[in-house]
């Protein structure tokens, strides 16, 4: 791959890299969890609450109570998703990294 070909492909790759939306879950959590035992306790409490909601008889609930349950379940899902704090790369970023490695190592 020559430099001339790289400059032909680069604008397309940059468009791809910045067109992929990425959502960070780091800002959604107010309390950092550092210990694995704390994580395990939090996960078990989330699981127990979700099973409690699933086993609940929802036929006698009003629409506002059902909405509150849905909001609570969404909040529990966000907490559970935030426990696996990881690093996410978009497809465009991976392509750019590979191309840069090819150029550097070639």
Globally, the shape reads: elongated
Task: Please describe the biggest sheet, giving its number of strands, its sense, and whether it closes into a barrel.
Answer: none
What is the N-to-C order of secondary-structure elements (H for helix, E for strand)? HHHH
Helix tally? 4
Going by helix content, strand content and strand pairing, the class is mainly alpha
Low-confidence stretches: none
Q: What distance lies between the first and last C-alpha atoms, to the nearest angstrom?
A: 9 Å
How would you describe what is shown here?
The chain has 106 residues and is mainly alpha-helical. It has a domain at 7-17 and 88-106. Helix content is 68%, strand content 0%. The chain has four helices and no strands. The protein has helices spanning 3-19, 36-55, 63-82, 91-105. The longest helix has 20 residues, at 36-55. The protein is elongated, with a radius of gyration of 22 Å. It starts with a helix and ends with a helix. The mean pLDDT is 79.
């Amino acid at each position: 791959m020559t430099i001339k070909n790289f400059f032909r492909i680069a604008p397309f790759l940059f468009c791809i890299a910045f067109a992929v939306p990425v959502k960070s879950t780091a800002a959604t959590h107010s309390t950092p969890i550092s210990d694995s035992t704390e994580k395990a306790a939090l996960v078990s409490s989330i699981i127990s609450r979700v099973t409690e909601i699933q086993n609940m008889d929802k036929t006698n609930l009003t629409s506002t109570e059902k909405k509150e349950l849905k909001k609570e379940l969404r909040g529990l899902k966000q907490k559970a998703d935030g426990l696996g704090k990881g690093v996410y790369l978009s497809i465009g970023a991976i392509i750019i990294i590979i191309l840069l490695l090819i150029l550097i190592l070639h």
